[in-house]
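Repro:
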Amino acid sequence: MAYRTTVLLPRGVAWGLRAVCAGCVLLSAALWWFAGDAPISCAVATVILLGVSGPLALSRGRIEVDDEHLRLKLVPLFTKTVPRHEIVAVEPAEVDPWRDFHGFGYRLTGAGRIGFVFRRGPAVRVSTRDGRTYVISDPAADELLAALR
């Protein structure tokens, strides 16, 4: 493995998502308490509330580079694999998740621009043969850049 790191959301955002998840747990409990005579509705609402908020509250990014692939993992939700032979250019960049991508995580902005952003600061811009551009935030962007070259 040429490069592997885990990137986390800013502390305030992570705690905010955990608070939303806790609120969903309380809402689900209240739903069962007050509408327990409709168990199917309560079960569906619980699955939706906790199925959405739980993974978001626990999410983190993992960046992996080996001889054949660049992998961007939004744990526990999905993995994006970019074959190394598809990469045509890599360059250092700076990123502000809110300004550049309107949020954190794996972000699609249209026109082939994709953000894998968890913090403001150093990043690497990766261009591929199919015209997509990935902006990957990483506190150790220089190491990621070296692994991709």
